[in-house]
Write a structure and sequence with these properties.
Blueprint: H1 3-35, E1 40-46, E2 48-49, E3 53-55, E4 61-62, H2 64-76, E5 79-85, H3 87-95, E6 101-105, E7 115-117, E8 122-131, E9 147-151, H4 155-163, E10 168-172, H5 175-183, E11 189-193, H6 194-203, E12 210-212, E13 218-227, H7 231-242, H8 246-257, H9 261-264, H10 267-298, H11 303-320, H12 327-342, E14 346-354, E15 357-365
C-alpha cells in the first residue's frame, strides 16, 4: 500500500468511525425518548354515555369510566385530561392525532384495522328497545319493516347493518338524541347499550313506555383504544388497568349505579328470624304434645289446653306482623311467653354462624333472677 493509499484509508476509516458514533448517539436518544413514559395523556369519550361518561351539572366529565381513569392516573402517576364530545368526533380526534386514547370502546374486527385495544376493564350488554305496544320482538331479525335507530359510528350500527341488511337504519349523534327521538315518536325501535338507554329513558320520564328484549343482542367487553402501532402508550394503559382491582371497579360502579334493593334487604336478619320462629314453633308444638299427654293421663283441667292454644295464637300473630325494626323485641317477647308458660327461670336462643360454632343471640330471664336480653 502506498503512502497516499494509506492516508486515504485512514481518512475513510475516521469518517466511518464518526458516522458510527453519530448514528449511535441518535439511536440512544431515540431509545431514551421512546422509553420515557408520557406525563399526560388526552382521553376522549362520548358526552352522553351516562352513567359511564357524561357532562355533569358542573360542566365537568363524570361517570364510571371517568372515575376509573382517575384511579388509573393515581396508580401510574400520569395525568389524564378527559374530554367529552359526540362519538363521531371521538373517533376523528384519535384519527387526527388530537387525542391519545379512546376511553371506552367495543373491539371489533373492523376496528382492529384502525386501533390497538387495551385489556378489557368492563362489560356492557346491548338490547333492542321498542314501544310497549309492539309485540313479538326477540332478536334483530324481527326488526324487518321498522325504522331502527342507532348512534352513528357505534358498534350497534355495524351489527344491525350486517344482521338486517334490508333494514332502514336511522343514525343519531348521541345516545341522548337517539332516546329522545324514540320518546318523541320519530322512531319506535332502537338498539343501544342497555344501561345508557335505561338512564336516558328514566331521565326523560318515559321508561314505562318502552320495553327491551329479554336477551341482549350481544354483550361486549369495554377496552381503551390507541392508534394502530402506538405500542408504548398501549403498554402504559395495560399496566395501569392491570393495577386496578375488581373490588375497586365494583366500588366505583356502586357509587354511580347504586345498590339493588334486593341487596339492601337484610336477608341474614330475615334468615335468622325465620330460623328463630321455626325453633320457637317447634318448642311450642313439643310442649303442646306433652301437655296433651298430661291432660289425657292426669285428667287435668282443659284450661291448660286452652292456654296452650292461646300461646300459639299469640306467637303466630306476633310473627305475622313481624317488622325488621321490631325483630329483637319480638324474639325476646316470644322467649318470655314460652318461659312463663313452661315455668322456667331462663330461656336462650342460639344460632350457628358457621359449622361447629354456636352463638347466643337472645336470652330471657325470670324477673326474680334479673331481667335482661342479650343480642
Amino acid at each position: 500500500m502506498t503512502l497516499i493509499d494509506r492516508k486515504q484509508f485512514l481518512s475513510l476509516a475516521r469518517w466511518l468511525l464518526c458516522l458510527t458514533l453519530v448514528v449511535g448517539v441518535v439511536s440512544l436518544r431515540s431509545a431514551s425518548a421512546s422509553a420515557e413514559e408520557p406525563k399526560r395523556i388526552v382521553v376522549v369519550g362520548d358526552r352522553s354515555y351516562a352513567p359511564f361518561e357524561f357532562i355533569g351539572a358542573t360542566g365537568q366529565p363524570q361517570g364510571i369510566f371517568v372515575d376509573i381513569y382517575r384511579l388509573w392516573s393515581e396508580k401510574t402517576g400520569v395525568e389524564v385530561a378527559y374530554r367529552l364530545m359526540t362519538w363521531e368526533e371521538v373517533l376523528n380526534r384519535l384519527k387526527e392525532g388530537r387525542a391519545d386514547v379512546i376511553g371506552g370502546i367495543f373491539p371489533s374486527s373492523e376496528r382492529e384495522k384502525l386501533y390497538d385495544f387495551s385489556i378489557p376493564y368492563y362489560e356492557i350488554p346491548v338490547n333492542i328497545f321498542f314501544r310497549n305496544n309492539i309485540y313479538g320482538i326477540r332478536k334483530l331479525e324481527d326488526l324487518v319493516g321498522f325504522k331502527i335507530g342507532v348512534v352513528k359510528e357505534d358498534s350497534s350500527e355495524d351489527v344491525v347493518r350486517k344482521k338486517v341488511p334490508q333494514a332502514v337504519v336511522v343514525t343519531y349523534a348521541t345516545f341522548e338524541d337517539l332516546v329522545r327521538a324514540a320518546v318523541e315518536g320519530e322512531i319506535n325501535v332502537f338498539v343501544a347499550d342497555t344501561p345508557v338507554a335505561i338512564f336516558h329513558l328514566n331521565k326523560l320520564g318515559r321508561a314505562d313506555t318502552f320495553n327491551y328484549s329479554e336477551k341482549p343482542v350481544y354483550s361486549s367487553k369495554v377496552c381503551a383504544a390507541v392508534k394502530k402501532g402506538d405500542v408504548a402508550r398501549l403498554k402504559l394503559l395495560n399496566t395501569g388497568i392491570g393495577m386496578i382491582t375488581d373490588q375497586e371497579k365494583e366500588a366505583i360502579k356502586l357509587h354511580w349505579i347504586g345498590v339493588s334493593l334486593a341487596r339492601k334487604i337484610p336477608w341474614r336478619l330475615f334468615g335468622l328470624g325465620a330460623f328463630s320462629v321455626l325453633v320457637i314453633v317447634a318448642v311450642i308444638l313439643f310442649w303442646n304434645y306433652q301437655l296433651r299427654r298430661r291432660v289425657a293421663l292426669a285428667g287435668l283441667n282443659l284450661n291448660v289446653q286452652a292456654a296452650t292454644d292461646s300461646l300459639v295464637a299469640r306467637m303466630s300473630t306476633r310473627f305475622i306482623r313481624f317488622r325488621a325494626d321490631d325483630f329483637d323485641h319480638n324474639i325476646t317477647r316470644a322467649l318470655q311467653d314460652i318461659g312463663e308458660f313452661i315455668a322456667v327461670e331462663r330461656i336462650c336462643l342460639f344460632v350457628s354462624d358457621r359449622p361447629g360454632l354456636m352463638r347466643k343471640t337472645h336470652e330471657w330471664r325470670c324477673p326474680d333472677l334479673g331481667a335482661g336480653s342479650a343480642m
